[in-house]
Amino acid sequence: MSDQFNIAADGVEQISLKTYTEKAYLDYSMYVILDRALPNIADGLKPVQRRIVYAMSELGLKAAAKYKKSARTVGDVIGKFHPHGDTSVYEAMVLMAQDFSYRYPLIDGQGNWGSSDDPKSFAAMRYTESKLAGFAELLLSELGQGTVEWQANFDGTMDEPKVLPSKVPTVLLNGTTGIAVGMATDIPPHNMREVVSACIHLLDEPRASIEQLMEHIQGPDFPTDAEIITPRADILNIYKTGKGSIRMRALWQKEGTDIVITALPHQVSGAKVLEQIAQQIHAKKLPMVADLRDESDHESPTRLVIIPRSNRVDVEPMMNHLFASTDLEKTYRVNLNMIGIDGKPEVKTLDKILSEWLLFRSETTKRRLQHRLQKVEERLMRLAALMIVYLNVDEVIRIIREEENPKQELIARFDLVEMQAEYILETKLRQLARLEEMKIKEEEEALEKEKENLEQIIGSPRRLKTLVRKELLAAVEEYGDDRRSPIVSREEARAFSEEELMTTEPVTVVLSVKGWIRSAKGHEIDPQSLSYKSGDSFHLAAKGKSNQSAVILDSGGKAYTVSAHSLPSARGQGEPLTGRINSPSGASFEGLMMGGQDELYLLASDAGYGFVVKLADLQTKNKAGKAALSLPKGGQVLQPGMVGGTHTDGAFVAAVTNEGRMLLFPLSELPTMARGKGNKIIGIPASRVQAREEYLIAVAILRETDTLRVYAGKRHVNMKFSELDHYLGERGRRGHKLPRGFQKVDAVEVVSKEAKKPE
């Protein structure tokens, strides 16, 4: 005997705790998987659903019957077949009655069975009444015809069917969800016409590919008019692997200036959607929406109205934002996990699901025919016995009256089997008068023909297949309907960014020498006139919009980003920039830039190197910044030059050294880069830069209509573009000396033709 199992002296079996717990948990796991959470491929039902449907059929609650209290059904289910809580049974029953939860409801309910807005708002089972829906007949009509296996119920007092003989693949039609131990199932509902069409195609072409089956089955079909926006390639992958996800989007339309939502994704609450939108309005994340209304009623179960602030609101991006940020668009997991005809759980592909179900259906149909054939043969034998009675009625009566063992005498006298002899003995005397030879022979002929037909179908796979096809078509003729969830192609929804939700008003960002930053409304402000802390003064300013970011360049060539809208007002003295970014100790700020994402700037070092950069390439969410300009040995950062557009055509670079040398060349000769050292702008010997004897004092971007202003001490000179031919040359040259008196240049600036003041 193993050490895990020992028999004690008193005869009690002893099992180690480890073995017991392992076995108990494994038994529980298998029970949950096979007898609670996963549907069977045969009838698409979980055990509790199957027991509810069967119990209702046993109570006589067919579609043509009168309604009965739901508590009656629940009592029968838990008392006879499903020894669990009445609440869980009733909730499963409610789900099968809700036409917004089940694509093809199995139960016809009367009373409050919940609403799509709140599926859990159903009345208690003592109030509601129910009976089976007509669709349930497709599961039950062949039940008593020897089609399926039976098993004892939980206490062994009666039998229940292991599965129901479904005439259609309900596992796909209604779908289901469930969580077992270590596995789950999420099967979406489908359209009956499409699924049956695919089944018929598979009967004709058993090796049909999933792509061919998808010519019949477009995809899932939920009990809602909302759109399925999953790409066809993704749906194909779901059917090929058995796993994936489906996205649904609400239907909406414009009525005047209002937006009306007429259909929501599967199992989405309209009240919750309105609450989600209202929260965004309250948080000022949806400034373009003025009001919301719920106009849903009995005639229009879903009618949610969104009222924009004005008729100038662009509703397409607004709806895209709502799709991305609310349940107006929802994703559903798909996991085609079910119990196969072999009794084992498995995630199955579409072709395998339909093939296995057709195998089950063919076997069920064959069993039904064999059961009927047996009944026909028994009836023929009884009719033969009746004919003997009719032809030999006096002899039969004599044997019954006079013989001690009339059954054996009848068997011996007329060459009967025991069943025929018993039937003769059970025949009532009053029936003998009505026995007519012609009627018996007519019934015999009809039964012989039926027997021959049954034997031909049972013996011919082709005829059996034809019968299955015919019955599938009959089922879809009675219960099939049009697709409800259209499959359409839509762009991916995108929520508004924080910048897009802000008002776009002009602002000027101002940075002081000591690194205090603030934002002033408008572009007309004079930064020099603002108030500064003692010992501090104006350093840099940049004009832009409130929904843009300001990019700061430090003395080490690193770029930092701060949102303009978050900066303090220029009415005060601002706040330290170092409180928002993590710049190296001792670093100063040498550049301030603002503009659109594609706006171009010239980054340069006084060593005479530089490049053109897009503002977007300098932006970062990292408080520690990002490397932008690499500095040669001894080089320092120059204030960036604004190109004033998104391309370099027609722009020129004026580069001036502290020794009064100037070079003018097309900006297009410099590369556009995201970061780096750049190319040589003006030729300055590296040794002179390192010794700080000669270096680039400034770079300016100008066009043919601009004027260049050069400062030397208290003097300055204005030079029109047409007067700069002498300094025009190739990038990287030494340039030419400026006029006498401007050998020591302090700064340069560009004066536009339209501007009254220098920019």
Q: Which strand order spans the largest sheet, edge to edge or round the barrel? A: 12-13-15-14
Strand content: 15-25%
By DSSP (H or I, 4+ residues per run), the number of helices equals 20
Structural class: alpha+beta
CATH topology of one domain: Neuraminidase
> Total strand count, please?
37
Distance between the termini: 99 Å
Structure described in brief:
With 759 residues, this protein is an alpha+beta fold. Helices cover 32% and strands 22% of the residues. The longest helix is centred in the middle third of the chain and has 42 residues, at 350-391.
Polypeptide structure, described:
The strands form 12 sheets. Strands 12-13-15-14 form a 4-stranded antiparallel sheet, covered by helices on one side. Strands 21-19-20-24 form a 4-stranded antiparallel sheet, with no helix packed on it. Among the domains are: 251-327, Gyrase A, domain 2 (2-Layer Sandwich); 365-457, Topoisomerase, domain 3, CATH 1.10.268.10; 503-595, no CATH class; 596-759, Neuraminidase (6 Propeller), CATH 2.120.10. Helices cover 32% and strands 22% of the residues. The protein is built from 20 helices and 37 strands. Helix 3 packs across helix 4 (86-97), helix 12 runs antiparallel to helix 17 and helix 14 (406-414) packs across helix 15 (418-426). A hairpin with a 5-residue loop joins strand 1 (5-7) and strand 2 (13-15). It is an alpha+beta fold and 759 residues long.
